[in-house]
Each structure stands twice: as structure tokens, then as C-alpha cells.
UniProtKB/TrEMBL annotation:
SUPFAM superfamilies: CheY-like, Homeodomain-like, P-loop containing nucleoside triphosphate hydrolases
SMART domains per UniProt: AAA, REC
Gene3D superfamilies per UniProt: 1.10.8.60, 3.40.50.2300, Homeodomain-like, P-loop containing nucleotide triphosphate hydrolases
Protein name: PEP-CTERM-box response regulator transcription factor
UniProt keyword list: Activator, ATP-binding, DNA-binding, Nucleotide-binding, Phosphoprotein, Transcription, Transcription regulation, Two-component regulatory system
Domain Sigma-54 factor interaction: 170-399
Species this chain originates from: Futiania mangrovi
All residue ranges annotated as the Response regulatory domain in the record: 30-147
MF term (GO), any: sequence-specific DNA binding
Single biological process term from Gene Ontology: phosphorelay signal transduction system
Modified positions (4-aspartylphosphate) in chain numbering: D77
Length: 473
């Protein structure tokens, strides 16, 4: 018998009590053999080496042992009692194993002339199949491959869980965004005014909501208004409300967004587009915390936290006389600068897979993965529309993809034009360095020395560059 063979006995040994599930220890390889032929089970026990073994002779026994033994790999004979001459019991066992423990690698063992059922089993999710008579040496190779794959998948999952974080629905793997989470956590406890800066689609509104949710006002209302999307003459009454008869068409008294946000947070998006005359009125509200509805005289006290955002360069607006400097200081006690997606290193790929998973869950579509060429295309693209564009592109790619993978051509990325007027020479140099570095690292599988050779620089130079650009390798 193999030295490594350990018969797995229930801990208590008492009938009717199942032992508590125990996860495999580090490096432990747990294999369950499901077969009703004692001769085969015996010979496999002798021949297979390097595993902790468990055996089961029927579907119910296999399912019961699956729970407490938690094998990574199962060999499953398709012909099980009460119908050992058919594959029905085995195929049902396969489906149930995969439903209860989806990560399990099941190797189906079929009788001679039963290839059709074996192929069916693979289409149902079995890892592989093997035809009798059993050659233990070949079977061990297949089992080892299955264990290796399972280990890789687990490692991948662990790495992904370690490198990504979600904060009130904001997903990221970038240190720069994680740092913003920490700021939001601190700022949320206070009523300090927050101005969120960032290009369109970077997640400014998502951050405003996160700030609200993390604050003591979290259970109060979150009211958002886009100051750039509402005509100037309507914006005042949208914000401050109006009394009945205040203007033609004002047939009843209507509360404005500021009042509606009482006890919660008011998010003023595109504050840079607010007309000057309204900026004065907003400033007065921020100083006195009372409003007057349009056409009204009553002063109404409102308790609201103001969070603002803009994609515009507010300093330029102040210089051009389009934005009041005193209002700017009022609304920007703290500024959150959200970097564009192209500067967040691997965030684009992580977010792409995140959106694929979300859409798959929401729409009942199959869960796809990104092919290596798709990942590389996502990294190279400059994402002028940031996360919103990525979200849309993923939605479309999921519909277009044929197999189990989204390929680069499903993404239809093309070359995105750079935003005119937004790139300084420094930005352009950084973007080029980032792209070249990412390409070299992709080409060399992350090997710094080889990447340095490709780029014609020394290893310390490439190391410094990675640090400087805050990239993950
Ligand atoms: N880190 C993220 N994780 C998950 N979803 C995100 C993330 N960032 C942005 N999104 C999604 O991207 C879309 C755009 O985000 P959002 O509206 O917050 O951006 P914005 O900067 O306010 O855009 P705009 O300036 O155009 O108003 C939304 O659907 C949002 O849910």
C-alpha cells in the first residue's frame, strides 16, 4: 500500500453523527474515489500515491462524504447502484457534486463502449474522462493535472481577493483609489465640505454616495442634481423650490432639492457649470444654512451636507471670472482627486472582470473570462470615457462573445483619441512610459531584468520608474 495512504475515518466513529467539515491543510491533496467495484477501489488505493483518500460506493454515500471530506478531486464511476449498467446515477452524482462544491475537479471513469456518456459528463462540467480498463499510472497523471489546476484556480482567487477592495460599491485594485477610501472614511465622520474632481466617468457620483453612506447621515436622503444639465432659468427653482404663483406655471408650492435633502446629503454635480447669480445664492445658503423658496419670504432652516463635483479645471474658471473664489473655498475644504482609469495601472482589467461578473449575475448570462489578448488590449487603451466607457464596452462584449472567453476583437476598442487640451507634456510622457513599461512587462511575463533589456535601460532605472508611476508588477 502507498505510504501516503490515510484512511479518512469519521472523527467520532459514532453512527449518525457527521464530523465537522475540515478544509484541506496547506498542500494536502484530497481525493475521493466513487466506485461500486471493491476490486477497483482496492487496486486504486494501492496504486495511487500522494493523496489523502476517501472512498464511496454509491451516490448518496459520495454526497454525504463530499461535505465533510471536501476533496479537491473526485474520480467518479458512471455506473453506480442501483443501476450499475447505466450512466444515469453517475451523471446525477456528477451534477450534484458540482452543485454542492463547484470547484471540485471530477474525473469520470466510464466502462468500455460508453464514450458517449463520458463526453456528456464533460459537457456537464466534469474535468476529464477516463475509460476502463484502468491503467493506474495514466489515471494518476490525469489526477495530478486536476490537482494542479485546482491549486492554480485557488491561488488566483486568493490573489484577486487580496488585491481588490470594494468600498460601498466602488471596486478597485489601485492603491491611489484605496487611499481615497481612507480619506472618505475620515471625512465622512465630519460635515466638512468635499469637492470631488475627476474626468467624466471616473466615479465621482459613486464617491459622493459612498461618502454619504459612510457618514452619520447615511440613513437620510441622498439627493443629486446635475447643475450642467438643467437650463439656467429652472435651476434656481430646482434647487431652492418655489411658492405657488411665483411665476407663470407655478400652480402649487414645490420644495427644492436642498430642502428634499434635509437630514442627508446634497450632491451638486458639475458645480463648475453653475451660473454666477446662483453661485451667490448658494454661497449665502452655505453661510447661513437657511433658504428662501423662489417667490417666498419665509426663511427655512435646512440641515444638509453639501458634496460637489466637477470635471472642469475650476482654477481656470476662477481666473476667467466664471466661478466665485469665495464659493470655491467654501465647497472645497477637502478635495478628492479621482485619477482617470488609464493612470490606475491594472484597475481597468480588474474592473472589466468585475463588470462581466455583475452582468452575468444580473442577466443570467454565462460567466465569461477575458482572454490574454483582451486583457492586453484593455491595458493599452486610454479609456477617455473612463469607467463608464469600460462598463458599456463590457456589456456589449458579453453579448458579442462566442465562446467562454471575451477576446480583443469582441471589445472593439480601436484607438481612443486623446482628450484635446487635457494632456500636458508631462502627462504625455508619463502615459507613454507607462504604456511602454506595461508592454515590456507583458512581453516578459513580469521579468524586470528582461523588461529592462527590452527597454534599453538598467534594472534600477526600471525599478524606479515602476515606483514613480505607482504601477503593480
Ligand atoms: N470603481 C468603480 N467600481 C464600480 N463601478 C464604477 C466604479 N467607478 C465608476 N463606476 C461606474 O461607472 C459609471 C460612471 O460613474 P459615475 O457616474 O460615478 O462617474 P462620474 O465621474 O460622476 O461621471 P460624470 O462626470 O459623467 O457625471 C457608473 O455606472 C458607476 O457605477
Amino acid at each position: 500500500m502507498s505510504e501516503d495512504y490515510v484512511e479518512h475515518l469519521p472523527a467520532s466513529g459514532a453512527k449518525g453523527t457527521s464530523p465537522a467539515p475540515r478544509k484541506p491543510q496547506d498542500g494536502e491533496r484530497r481525493l475521493m474515489i466513487v466506485d461500486d467495484d471493491p476490486g477497483i477501489v482496492r487496486s486504486l488505493k494501492w496504486a495511487l500515491e500522494g493523496y489523502t483518500l476517501e472512498t464511496a460506493g454509491s451516490r448518496p454515500e459520495a454526497l454525504q462524504k463530499l461535505e465533510h471530506f471536501q476533496p479537491q478531486v473526485v474520480t467518479l464511476d458512471l455506473g453506480l447502484p442501483p443501476h450499475p449498467d447505466e450512466a444515469t446515477e453517475g451523471l446525477t452524482a456528477l451534477s450534484e457534486i458540482l452543485r454542492l462544491a463547484p470547484g471540485t475537479k471530477v474525473i469520470v471513469v466510464s466502462g468500455n463502449n460508453d464514450r458517449q456518456n463520458a463526453v456528456k459528463a464533460v459537457s456537464l462540467g466534469a474535468y476529464d474522462f477516463y475509460e476502463k480498463p484502468i491503467d493506474a499510472e495514466v489515471l494518476q497523471l490525469i489526477i495530478d493535472r486536476a490537482f494542479n489546476l485546482r491549486q492554480l484556480e485557488e491561488e488566483n482567487k486568493r490573489l484577486q481577493a487580496e488585491s481588490t477592495g470594494v468600498f460601498h460599491g466602488i471596486m478597485t485594485a489601485a492603491d491611489s483609489i484605496e487611499a481615497l477610501f481612507r480619506t472618505v472614511e475620515k471625512v465622512a465622520k465630519t460635515d466638512i465640505s468635499v469637492l470631488i474632481l475627476g474626468e467624466s466617468g471616473t466615479g465621482k457620483e459613486l464617491f459622493a454616495k459612498a461618502l454619504h453612506k459612510a457618514s452619520p447621515r447615511g440613513s437620510g436622503p441622498f439627493v443629486a442634481i446635475n447643475c450642467g444639465a438643467i437650463p439656467e432659468n429652472l435651476l434656481e427653482s430646482e434647487l431652492f423650490g418655489h411658492e405657488k404663483g411665483a411665476f407663470t406655471g407655478a400652480v402649487r408650492t414645490v420644495k427644492g432639492k436642498i430642502e428634499n435633502a434635509n437630514g442627508g446629503t446634497l450632491f451638486l454635480d458639475e458645480i463648475g457649470d453653475m451660473p454666477l447669480q446662483l453661485q451667490v445664492k448658494l454661497l449665502r445658503f452655505l453661510q447661513e444654512r437657511v433658504i428662501e423658496r423662489v417667490g417666498g419670504r419665509e426663511q427655512i432652516a435646512v440641515d444638509v451636507r453639501i458634496v460637489t463635483a466637477t470635471h472642469r479645471q475650476i482654477r481656470d474658471l476662477i481666473e476667467a471670472g466664471d466661478f466665485r473664489e469665495d464659493l470655491y473655498y467654501r465647497i472645497s475644504e477637502i478635495t478628492l482627486d479621482i485619477p482617470p482609469l488609464r493612470e490606475r495601472d491594472d484597475d481597468a482589467v480588474v474592473l472589466a472582470q468585475y463588470f462581466i461578473d455583475v452582468f452575468a449575475r444580473e442577466s443570467g448570462l454565462r460567466r465569461l473570462t477575458l482572454s490574454p489578448d483582451a486583457q492586453s488590449a484593455i491595458r493599452k487603451y486610454s479609456w477617455p470615457g473612463n469607467v463608464r466607457e469600460l462598463e458599456n464596452k463590457m456589456k456589449r462584449a458579453m453579448v458579442l462573445a462566442d465562446g467562454d472567453m471575451i477576446t480583443a476583437s469582441d471589445l472593439q476598442l480601436g484607438v481612443a483619441p486623446q482628450k484635446p487640451g487635457r494632456m500636458t507634456l508631462k502627462d504625455a510622457r508619463e502615459a507613454a512610459e507607462r504604456a511602454a513599461l506595461r508592454d515590456a512587462l507583458d512581453a516578459t511575463d513580469g521579468n524586470l531584468s528582461q523588461a529592462a533589456k527590452l527597454l534599453g535601460v538598467s534594472r534600477p532605472t526600471i525599478y524606479n520608474l515602476i515606483k514613480q508611476l505607482d504601477m503593480k508588477v
